[in-house]
Design a protein that fits this description.
Structural class: mainly alpha
CATH topology: Methane Monooxygenase Hydroxylase, Chain G, domain 1
Strand content: under 5%
Radius of gyration: 29 Å
Length: 98
Amino acid sequence: MVAVNLNLKPDQQQAVRDAIKVEERLRIVMGFLEREREILEIGQKAQVEMSKTQREYILRQQLEAIRRELGETDDRDAELAELRRKIDETNLPEEPRR
């Protein structure tokens, strides 16, 4: 009965039907259930990790917006702007500028 509710491939369904003894059927179904559980765990872990990454991205964006609003700039931004200005003043070909 449990095997009917699982999303099994035809060959997996056939393996359950081919098992003559109930114990063997249960063992086969338990193997499929264990695999499904592992897949669900991996999916949940991936979801948690993506949520953390998205949260971090949003927080960084908010922090950057707050800094801009307060007129604060990161020292690196000023340094980068200075370096870009110096590069623009040189007569380098386009390729090295990238």
